[in-house]
Amino acid sequence: MPDRLKAFASRKLNRLFRREAGYSGLNSRQVFEKIYRDDAWGPAHTDNREYFSGGGSHDPAIVDTYVTAVQEFIRVLGKKPDVVDLGCGDFNVGAQLVEFSSSYLACDLVAGLIDENRTLYRQANLSFRVLDMVKNELPGGDVALVRQVLQHLPNDDIIRFVSKLRGTFQHLLVTEHLPSGDDFPANVDKPIGPSIRLHSGSGVVLTRPPFNLAPKRERILCEVEQFGGVIRTHAYELE
Length: 239
Fold this sequence. Notes:
By secondary structure, this protein is α/β, with parallel strands linked by helices. It has a single domain, classed as Rossmann fold. The chain has 5 helices and 7 strands, in the order αααββαββαβββ. Strands 3-2-1-4-5-7-6 form a 7-stranded mixed sheet, covered by helices on one side.
């Protein structure tokens, strides 16, 4: 990377670290509880909701593209899969996929958020669980959905998550907000918090170091240009 780009990235990263300083000393659960409590991703848009997972979970241009692509992915599988949604957030997206699954387990580490989801969303094949995808054992399934979650985590947490994937799922669909193009420095580390690596000109790419995910096959499932980058979903077939 040219020196001027390195300097620019360094300045952006320093600003990112300053923003995340308010979350220093908190564990993962406390960080995300504070994010929701402080409306760091925006306030809830309806009176019956306390929790809001941000525009990326509600903008129709983003959500509709994703839902359509995942529905088609499931159709090609030829059967309704057991789906595990890791970091389900306020469930505005997942709610549109439940009917296409045999079972749908929606997980998040914020207990109040899960309680609210349980009250609002009820289907026979749907269940919710309080779960930390980094620290807890992952529930097995056919398809795991991880949608704009890893971008908020430090590299060490992502490494721990990736280490648990082998033999747990057949397919992993990962959505991340990335810089446009493919020549960006991937996986620049960051502290846990509401910001994402896009702010420092980087993004999470699981197949690059230090994560080195080695899927049997991978492809881009869908992408949407947004906020100076691209929200891209990769479909990985796992060993």
